Amino acid sequence: RKEVEQDPGPFNVPEGATVAFNCTYSNSASQSFFWYRQDCRKEPKLLMSVYSSGNEDGRFTAQLNRASQYISLLIRDSKLSDSATYLCVLQADSNYQLIWGAGTKLIIKP
Amino acid sequence: NAGVTQTPKFQVLKTGQSMTLQCAQDMNHNSMYWYRQDPGMGLRLIYYSASEGTTDKGEVPNGYNVSRLNKREFSLRLESAAPSQTSVYFCASSDRTGRWPQHFGDGTRLSIL
């Protein structure tokens, strides 16, 4: 089983809709979690960290479910500019290494 | 404010050739990283440098070497390129290792024929 698993998509969503996708992880000792965004042929950029209590940044909400070992990302009122690949990332232990999911591709259609 | 700068952006090599990918950051970050990204896979860490003067292997170090030249610069060298090293290479930096946000360069698209 992969350490981090994401549905590759693509998720095709009309503009203005709400979309959510999950990321499951296998290491229960994982400590820190993040969502990065990557546009086509560009570098990844940090979207938001994921906190145990859940956190919100504008239209974006991230949740962590330790019991079921997944994190989620909810995007409300989606915009065309939200089209990108969303990468789930976690830090497995106190060491340096971040573990990256392969990403979920999101396409927002007008 | 350049952030993380990688050169070159594109390169085509023949099997067995060598080359060095350059990376520099101007954010005064302590930690720097080299990743490769292949289709359908997450980023995989090749090498990292937690601080100036130190380097350590990541998940996929074979076939690569690195040099942390100073606090700003971290280079990746392919001594004898192989087709399996065809990939997109990203350099990143962060204030510290681990949970600190990583800032990425634009990437180098490398093809080995």
Q: Main attributes?
A:
A: 110 residues; six-stranded mixed sheet; five-stranded antiparallel sheet; 11 strands; 55% strand; B: 113 residues; mainly beta; four-stranded antiparallel sheet; globular
A few lines on this structure:
Helices cover 0% and strands 55% of the residues of chain A. Chain A is mainly beta and 110 residues long.
How does this structure look, described?
The complex is a heterodimer of chains A (110) and B (113). Chain A is mainly β and 110 residues long. Helix content of chain A is 0%, strand content 55%. Chain A has no helices and 11 strands. In chain A, the strands form 2 sheets. In chain A, strands 2, 4, 5, 9, 10 and 11 form a 6-stranded mixed sheet that branches. A 5-stranded antiparallel sheet of chain A has the order 1-3-8-7-6, with no helix packed on it. In chain A, strand 4 and strand 5 form a beta hairpin. The model of chain A has no long low-confidence stretch (mean pLDDT 92). Chain B is mostly beta strands. Chain B has no helices and 11 strands. In chain B, strands 2, 4, 5, 6, 9, 10 and 11 form a 7-stranded mixed sheet that branches. A 4-stranded antiparallel sheet of chain B has the order 1-3-8-7, with no helix packed on it. In chain B, a hairpin with an 8-residue loop joins strand 9 and strand 10. Classes of the chains: A mainly beta (110), B mainly beta (113).
Q: Layout of helices and strands, plus pairs?
A:
The complex is a heterodimer of chains A (110) and B (113).
Chain A: E1 4-6, E2 11-14, E3 19-25, E4 32-38, E5 44-50, E6 55-57, E7 60-65, E8 70-75, E9 84-91, E10 98-100, E11 104-109
Chain B: E1 4-7, E2 10-13, E3 19-25, E4 31-37, E5 44-49, E6 56-57, E7 64-68, E8 74-78, E9 87-94, E10 103-104, E11 108-112
Parallel strand pairs in B: 2-11
Antiparallel strand pairs in B: 1-3, 3-8, 4-5, 4-9, 5-6, 7-8, 9-10, 9-11
